[in-house]
Amino acid sequence: MPKVLITGANRGIGLEFVRQYGAEGWDVIACCRDPGGAAALRDLAAASGGKVTITTLDVLDHSTVEAAAETHRGEPIDVVINNAGIPGPKGDIAVQQRFGAMDYEAWVRVLRTNTLGPMKVAEAFAANVAASTQKKIVHISSTVGSNVEPVGLAQVYSYGTSKAALNKMATLMAEALRACGVTVLAMCPGHVKGAGMGGPSADVELSDSIAGMRKVIGAAALADTGGFRRYNGETIEF
């Protein structure tokens, strides 16, 4: 069976990836920073018959990334999904992401989580992916990181710049790993209900977003490397 590694697997988008891949019989390495507090993920793993295993990994703590890579050294991993991320200040304090009121410490934390974290994970597990059959690395991004597509959240400086940097990183990584046959994609899950920046106005069901992304990931080939895709397969200009 193919194997997938998912970061930020304890809730929202990551947890639904675990649920759907596990339901199809994939071997799932579900990564999160605090397995002890991830009750829903632990329940999924317990009911999976050993198909879902939980690994401690905090993208802000590179020693945990290295330890996770050591635990899984030599294992082919078909798909790595860099899902772990944070929106930064939101709700009543979203002003801290806007011009004239920036919280610079929060900005650095968002960049470290959403951009540097995925880079470290990709470096740590690149050999596992290259040794697999499918050879894919997927970064969960957002259209807020596009300089072309207009979005209503354009004033969230911390989140938007972190995703723009993630998209550029994906294009550079695609070229670095092309010779290894590894396909690298950035993907937007859409405005998902109950996940990340999603709220009452979100218009995409979580299960539909993940099912769509899994379809795109499954069909992706080396010719697609470096691309930015929406959950429904549309190409996003950035």
Descriptive notes:
By secondary structure, this protein is an alpha/beta fold. The chain has one domain: 3-Layer(aba) Sandwich (Rossmann fold), CATH 3.40.50.720. 39% of the residues lie in helices and 14% in strands. It has 6 helices and 7 strands. The protein has helices at residues 12-23, 39-46, 62-71, 104-130, 157-177, 206-219; strands at 3-6, 27-32, 52-56, 79-82, 136-140, 183-188, 227-230. Strands 3-2-1-4-5-6-7 form a 7-stranded parallel beta sheet, with helices on both faces. Strand 5 (136-140), helix 5 and strand 6 (183-188) form a beta-alpha-beta unit. Helix 1 (12-23) crosses helix 6 (206-219), helix 3 packs parallel to helix 4 (104-130) and helix 4 (104-130) runs parallel beside helix 5 (157-177). The radius of gyration is 17 Å and the shape is globular. The relative contact order is 0.14.
Number of helices in the DSSP assignment: 6
Q: What is the CATH class?
A: Alpha Beta
Spatial separation of the terminal alpha carbons: 35 Å
State the major sheet: 7 strands, parallel
Strand order of the largest sheet: 3-2-1-4-5-6-7
Name of the CATH architecture: 3-Layer(aba) Sandwich
CATH topology: Rossmann fold
Number of domains: 1
| DSSP, total strands | 7
Q: Helix share of residues?
A: 25-40%
